[in-house]
Design brief:
Blueprint lengths: L7 H4 L6 E4 L10 H9 L4 E5 L15 H6 L4 E4 L13 H9 L3 E4 L9 H10 L3 E3 L18 E7 L6 H14 L4 E4 L3 H7 L13 H8 L8 E4 L11 H11 L3 E7 L4 E2 L2 E5 L3 H12 L7 E8 L5 H15 L3 E2 L5 H12 L1
Parallel strand pairs: 1-2, 1-3, 3-4, 4-5, 6-8, 6-9, 7-8, 9-12, 12-13
Antiparallel strand pairs: 10-11
Helix pairs in contact: 2-7, 4-5, 8-9
């Protein structure tokens, strides 16, 4: 039985292809791991599997673990990132079914697969592996605050689960398309599964979190860009500490603020109103200047996935006019996204 955080070298040896497990999820925002793998590693996904009562789908073929195994799947990935990262008892029959069908289990939850006795026992009986990727590196340092060489961009959000990872991945692809040396730096379990390396920031002991962010983007060539996946929100009532540690340790030269058009309440905390984009920019620049006085905001990544094309273009144009900054939906691309990329690299 295996419990490990994947390194870049080990990523190629993770048991692939994957069956994506959606649990009993009824809130699409909590299925971001499944959506991220579908959108950025689709060649590694054969289908999806869910408990009775689930209403969220990644749009992949619905397969039982046995069917997925017959189609070549080698593991089932928990595609849910629910509040607290728990594995509820209602999931256990489905997870045990996957082990019985000959699939390894890969989890990115705070709750460790290897810490659940029925799963441990079944893994031994069926000769399967339990792989936990939300395991931070050992011997992380306390942050030094030392300025590092190279260039850094951090995606910052008004909330959770609204496009920070997708924005970072899209920017890396665009930078490389222009001949710029750039690398995606993953700071959450989905990003780590996509990239094959990274640091799960929300699993790091608080005293070492800013130091972990420094480790995530070490000294580099002056022309190199590290594009760092943001986490949470500086205004989030539960997760602001992770966001601040990542901001201080990353020492970004550039931030891109990410927002979902139309979202008004904090995900999972509807009694809190979402901060405005303007508030988020001001707060990030003020706090980020502590470790990089030259920090600047290049623009805004606006998630317009719920809008049709014409409505999305109006929302992007109106937001850009209001803020006086480049605004784009990276998933739609186009001239607006090209302007955002220009501003990042300026």
């Amino acid at each position: 039985m295996q419990t490990a955080a994947p390194t870049l070298r080990e990523a190629e040896t993770l048991p692939q292809p994957y069956l994506l497990f959606l649990g009993d999820t009824t809130e699409a925002g909590y299925a971001k791991t499944a959506f991220g793998l579908r959108d950025w590693a689709s060649e590694r996904c054969v289908g999806e599997f869910a408990c009775a009562g689930a209403t969220v789908s990644a749009g992949l073929p619905s397969l039982t673990p046995a069917q997925a195994r017959m189609l070549g799947a080698r593991s089932m990935v928990i595609g849910v990132a629910n509040p607290g990262g728990r594995i509820p008892p209602a999931w256990l029959p489905s997870l045990l079914e996957a082990l019985h069908a000959g699939l390894d289990l890969i989890g990115g939850m705070h709750a460790r697969l290897s810490g659940i006795e029925p799963l441990r026992n079944a893994a031994v009986v069926h000769g399967r592996c339990l792989i936990d990727v939300r395991e931070p590196p050992s011997a992380l340092p306390i942050a030094s605050g030392r300025k590092r060489t190279g260039r850094r961009l951090l995606t910052v959000g008004t909330d959770c689960a609204l496009g920070k990872k997708y924005t970072a991945l899209s920017l890396v692809r665009a930078f490389r398309g222009r001949g710029v040396d750039a690398q995606f730096r993953a700071s959450g379990q989905t990003g780590i599964l996509i990239a094959g390396a990274g640091v799960p920031m929300d699993a790091v002991v608080a005293d070492f979190a800013a130091g972990a962010a420094e480790t995530l983007s070490p000294d580099a060539d002056p022309a190199h860009w590290d594009v760092i996946e943001g986490q949470g929100s500086l205004s989030h009532p539960a997760y602001a500490g992770v966001s601040l540690s990542l901001l201080h340790g990353s020492q970004p030269d550039v931030i891109v603020v990410c927002h979902e058009h139309g979202r008004e309440r904090v995900l999972g905390h509807p009694h809190y109103a979402l901060p405005s984009i303007e508030e988020t920019i001001e707060l990030a620049l003020r706090l980020g200047a502590r470790t990089n006085p030259a920090i600047r905001c290049a623009g805004v990544s606006l998630n317009t996935g719920a809008l049709d094309f014409e409505a999305a273009q109006r929302a992007i144009a109106d937001t850009a006019a209001r803020l006086g900054l480049p605004v784009a939906d990276p998933m739609r691309g186009g001239e607006a996204f090209a302007r955002l990329v220009d501003a990042c690299l300026a």
